[in-house]
Amino acid sequence: MISLENVSKWYGQFQVLKNCTTKVGKGEVVVVCGPSGSGKSTLIKTVNGLEPVQKGQIIIGGKEVTSKATSLSKLRSKVGMVFQHFELFPHLTILKNLTLAQIKVLGRTDDEAREKALSLLERVGLLAHANKYPAQLSGGQQQRVAIARALCMDPIVMLFDEPTSALDPEMVNEVLDVMVELAYEGMTMMVVTHEMGFARKVANRVIFMDAGEIIEDTSKEQFFTNPQSDRAKDFLAKII
Ligand code: ADP
Ligand code: MG
Predict the structure, then answer these.
(1) Distance 43 CA to ligand 2 centre (A)
(2) Is the pTM of this model over 0.90?
(3) How far does the centroid of ligand 2 lie from the alpha carbon of residue 140, in Å?
(4) How far does the centroid of ligand 1 lie from the alpha carbon of residue 149, in Å?
(5) What is the dihedral of CA 23, 147, 119, 29, to 10 degrees?
(6) What is the pLDDT of residue 43?
(7) Is the dihedral of CA 108, 112, 116, 121 positive or negative?
(8) Is residue 52 part of a domain?
(9) Domain tally for the chain?
């Protein structure tokens, strides 16, 4: 579903991604971890073309992100992305937040969009909040709305960038629970997170990055019980 082949990226002179190669199969859940500044956010943003790369090839759902011929806006509508900060539209109700892109980008009717939105709000346990504004919800609830909003577009892949790291601790699990459910339903997911409980539960593979390089790309069993590199060992010792 996702393929990165020798992807390199520079910010000016600074090489932020170094020859990154990996694949994510349909229905796979891949957790990306590594120290702060190692390039995790940049890597995940290259997948849907939010960050252009200077070298290498990226393919998602059979479309080449790195080709000039590919319409990035069309491609992005099929790739759900959830960030650390929820980025809901503050001036729109929860329901409007969920219907807007369905109507504008996918051309769904108001009724179709509304039906889809309500069913996804129900799925994340927030149906009762449809007519509220984002600021009236807790951080955990807003992040669940952000996930529901992404799912409204029927994405072929979901990308998450530290979706729980801005949340108060008591709200982390309600968001992870939604993500775990999504994983069990077979969604293809690439998740930057330090929540190793989540990784242990649902990851098929773990990618460990350091200084712009993919240092390990391995099964979660292997990663947690027998990491190959000293850098991964150090990292695990610090966070577990
Ligand atoms: P992570 O998500 O692993 O913390 P990032 O991908 O955000 O890492 O950043 C990787 C490196 O790239 C960091 O050293 C960061 O300072 C640098 N960086 C990120 N965005 C930019 C940018 N727009 N311009 C220059 N350097 C950047
Ligand atoms: Mg980051």
Answers:
(1) 9
(2) yes
(3) 19
(4) 26
(5) 30
(6) 97
(7) positive
(8) yes
(9) 1
Q: Is residue 103 part of a domain?
A: no
* Structural contact between residues 168 and 139, judged by C-beta atoms closer than 8 angstroms: yes
Question: Ligand 1 pocket, 16 CB below 6 A?
Answer: yes
pLDDT tens string 15-50: 999 999 999 999 999 999 999 999 999 999 999 899
Is the pLDDT confidence value at 74 over 90? Answer: no
Task: Give every CB contact of residue 191 below 8 A, 6+ residues apart in sequence.
Answer: 29, 30, 31, 32, 159, 160, 163, 179, 198, 203
74 domain residue, yes or no: no
> Which residues span the domain enclosing 5?
1-21+43-68
Q: Which ligand is located closest to the Cα atom of residue 83?
A: 2
Q: Write the Ramachandran bin of 154: left for phi over 0, alpha for psi from -120 to 50, otherwise beta.
A: left
Does 11 sit in the ligand 1 pocket, CB within 6 Å? yes
ipTM higher than 0.90? yes
213 in a structural domain: no
Residue 140 is predicted with a pLDDT of 96
Residue type, 157: V
pLDDT in tens, 111-144: 999 999 999 999 999 999 999 999 999 999 999 9
